[in-house]
Design a protein that fits this description.
The protein has six helices and 13 strands. By secondary structure, the chain is of the alpha+beta class. The chain has a single domain, classed as Gcn5-related N-acetyltransferase (GNAT) (Aminopeptidase), CATH 3.40.630. The strands form three sheets. Strands 2, 3, 4, 5, 7, 8, 10, 11 and 12 form a nine-stranded mixed beta sheet that branches. Strands 1-13 form a two-stranded antiparallel sheet. The longest helix has 17 residues. The N and C termini lie close together (6 Å). 40% of the residues are buried.
Length: 255
């Protein structure tokens, strides 16, 4: 299966962009190479360096991989990993369950798509690629008949964690999930042990989730491997902001 967009709607400055799902092992390796450059090389995570130059894990085999290519160069310039309920059952868990206790969401498991490993080449971060990836997720959810999107948004701890803590304390009541949808991190990030008065800066991915109507489902988890605080987010499609629904739900169609 491929997810297609009208090329006229997928233009980024000088290039046309094309959206698809990875359908071969080589396409998955292209995704893993891009993730390695963005997540490991650019962040100087030497502990995760490997001679293959690939960012990969056991979930890659079970998940689907959205790809955005520059139609002129055919290079992969953006990707998002998506996991259907069926794939999670085969795997035995969602990726987020490595960081969070999701037991309060058990009744939603057959209606959830998980998205993660969002990655965009530094030269293509003007907005076109992420919009195309989100439209692809919407099409994927329609195909899988899912009513909820979940995933994690990472906040760097390069500043000692002050921004991550300030972000959590700055969330408004309408940003937080109802109690029935709260999750618990296995390794909590210590949000109370940071300086007061820090002005929070919202990373683009987290901002995109919040603007779309996603809930923050509790305190962040601490990911020591990627040196980040990870916020778990849940977006019910029924809550999707009308502006975003109009855009995403009409941009793509399954083929």
């Amino acid at each position: 299966m491929r997810l297609l967009t009208n090329p006229a709607d997928a233009t980024a400055s000088h290039s046309k962009l094309a959206l698809s799902l990875a359908s071969t092992p080589e396409e998955v390796r292209e995704v893993q190479r891009l993730r390695y450059k963005v997540f490991i090389e650019s962040m100087n995570l030497s502990a995760l360096a490997n001679p293959e130059g690939l960012d990969k894990d056991e979930f890659d085999t079970y998940c689907d991989h959205l790809i955005v290519r520059d139609s002129k160069t055919l290079s992969v310039v953006g990707t998002y990993r998506v996991m259907s309920p069926h794939a999670a059952r085969r795997m035995g868990k969602f990726y987020s369950e490595q960081e969070f206790d999701l037991s309060r969401l058990d009744n939603l498991r057959n209606a959830i798509t998980e998205a993660g490993r969002a990655c965009i080449h530094p030269d293509y971060r003007s907005g076109g690629v992420i919009m195309l990836l989100w439209a692809g997720i919407a099409a994927y959810m329609r195909k899988e008949r899912c009513d909820y999107l979940m995933g994690c948004a990472s906040v760097s701890l390069a500043d000692g964690g002050h921004n991550a803590a300030a972000l959590y304390h700055a969330f408004q009541e309408n940003n937080m999930a109802p109690p029935d949808y709260r999750v618990t991190p296995h390794l909590p990030f210590p949000i109370a042990e940071r300086e007061a008065g820090h002005q929070p800066q919202i990373p683009p991915l987290l901002r995109g989730y919040l603007r779309s109507g996603a809930w923050v489902c509790g305190e962040p988890a601490w990911d020591p491997d990627f040196h980040s605080a990870d916020f778990f987010l849940l977006l019910p499609l029924a809550k999707l902001d009308s502006r975003y629904a109009k855009h995403y739900l009409k941009e793509t169609r399954p083929a």
